[in-house]
Known about the structure:
four-stranded antiparallel beta sheet, globular, two-stranded antiparallel ribbon, mainly beta, single chain, 6 strands, binds calcium ion
Amino acid sequence: MSSMAQPTSTTPAQRSVATVRTRVTNLGGAQWSVAPNDRDTNANAVDDFLEVRVPASTNGSVQPAAIYRARFDCAAGSVVAASAIPCSIAQVAGLDSQPLDPSLVAQIHCSVAVAAAP
Ligand SMILES: [Ca+2]
């Protein structure tokens, strides 16, 4: 599965892939791994799109849980609403890489919560 978050009021800077990896934390333990990548979708030399591939690492079912935490930069004191960060599920496949039944895909949702960085 991969999800995408496109912050509108935060400003992720141009970062290397290695730096982006340090900003995305797997919250699912051994259920899956996370493989983040950021992209510049409008060719202005600033990455503005976070894509995270989340391959399951078990043969059993994946339990509902928060999948990952991503840390974005924003100006000190600014307030960012979760609704300002769109999130979508881009692709869902089974462990065999085949698309899942649409009734299963319909049960998968993307949501965003916002918290200050520790
Ligand atoms: Ca851009």
